[in-house]
């Protein structure tokens, strides 16, 4: 007996209802992207390995799916390399390409490669799948879609302000109120690392701090100790774990902690500008919240960093995130090209909307009417009517086989098609159509014109 087929862990099949709901989210996001002036691009699903590796930190690099070279990829491996079993030596020789981990690094590569064709500042959006060799769990998949918007070629903080408004605009359009846009600044984190004497361990420090809401304060401190950050330095962090109050009061508390750090104070200045602008413009449904522990453990962020939380009571990780990256295109040879971008987590947003019952009924654009097939002559008459209905924007179809009436009706019920049309000898003679409402059982004989009006 043949083994039942399956799909890899962390991937999913989507039925028509799920696809319709996902399309509703992406079309809503896309509409807002266009309103804000972003232009669409697409990049390949896989990149050269050296484009991706080293851009996401040590933890991120481990989650990149590598693609084996085609052909006899072991030919290039010497006996010495093979016997050593060294991943760092073997991998580059058997894998030169990798599935993209996110859309931001490929975007940076795109900007550098096409810089002579681009008008800066360049505002792009991209909605495509990405892949991560992560441990699958609720809201976390190995294959998932990202919906990104980025601006490169401008260091203006008004870009950060607009991205906060964009988040608010999308979640308002999705009727998802109560979201929290958390914000921090990488310069503040650099300043903190400076104050505690851990400048050389900034990445270790931020990666550990970013886990605070997942593993708690004590575990974060243990991880920092394990990474070589001194106990004295960790003790100096205590005021950060105890910051309370609104945006302004937390910033004021930070000013005293970072009084000796020029870069830390610069980060505070940037956040104050953003907060003042947002307070003046006002958000419709989301709220902006300062979170000094927010680190988003990606190496390329240099300024503001964002993370969006689902409404209170919904057990879900972040549903969006992003930040400012001043040096990303520099790694591909294009210096002094500041950028900032955000991403929407399509899969997690889907789960939140589903849990809260926020998908409109109209999202599922099902077939509206099924024509019952009584035979060849009747089917030809039905097909002409079906074509006319489709030309007028009505979703209609003909059952392909002259099967038993019960079977065709059951098919309509299981597909949740609200109407069926019956065309028999009598209808053929009078050039009419009998329309049956599947919910009430009511039937009426109509001309094609009346049928069209009724179904509209």
Molecular structure report:
The strands form three sheets. This protein has an eight-stranded mixed beta sheet with strand order 1-5-6-11-10-9-7-8. Strands 13-12-14-15-16 form a five-stranded mixed beta sheet. The chain has a three-stranded antiparallel beta sheet with strand order 2-4-3. The chain folds into two domains: 16-64 and 101-356, Bira Bifunctional Protein, Domain 2 (BirA Bifunctional Protein, domain 2, 2-Layer Sandwich); 366-455, Rossmann fold (3-Layer(aba) Sandwich), CATH 3.40.50.800. Helix 1 crosses helix 16 (346-356) and helix 9 packs antiparallel against helix 11 (217-226). It is α+β, with helices and mostly antiparallel strands and 456 residues long. The protein is built from 20 helices and 16 strands.
Please describe the topology of this protein.
Blueprint: H1 16-35, E1 39-40, E2 46-48, H2 49-52, H3 57-62, E3 66-67, H4 79-84, H5 87-94, E4 97-99, H6 104-113, E5 122-131, E6 143-152, H7 158-173, E7 180-185, H8 186-195, H9 202-209, H10 212-215, H11 217-226, H12 231-236, H13 238-241, H14 247-257, H15 262-281, E8 287-290, E9 304-309, E10 320-325, E11 339-345, H16 346-356, E12 369-371, H17 376-391, E13 396-398, H18 405-414, E14 419-422, H19 425-430, E15 433-437, E16 443-446, H20 448-455
Parallel strand pairs: 1-5, 7-8, 12-13, 12-14
Antiparallel strand pairs: 2-4, 3-4, 5-6, 6-11, 7-9, 9-10, 10-11, 14-15, 15-16
